Amino acid sequence: MKPVFVQLQCAPGKTYDVAHVLYEREIVSELYSTSGEFDLLLKLYIAEDKDIGKFLNQNVLDIPYIVRSLTTMTFTAF
Predict the structure, then answer these.
(1) What's the predicted TM-score (pTM) here?
(2) Is 19 exposed, middle or buried (0-12, 13-18, 19+ CB in 10 A)?
(3) Which end of the chain is less enclosed by CB atoms within 10 A, N or C?
(4) What are the Transcription regulator AsnC/Lrp ligand binding domain coordinates in residue numbering (predicted)?
């Protein structure tokens, strides 16, 4: 499993709605509200044989009220 971090910017007043859908889908390992340009930071694990872009598009980025995202791939844990 490959850990992937995704930051989400949500429409004003909709952060909790987006977070609720993410938890309902049971795909996130960790989910945080954050300050700054993005509203949510999530960590999820994606199987090595899965297409990460396709997985995110089908399971995260289709959630209403997500305005923008930033995905950070991981390489080595220290």
Answers:
(1) 0.93
(2) buried
(3) C
(4) 6-74
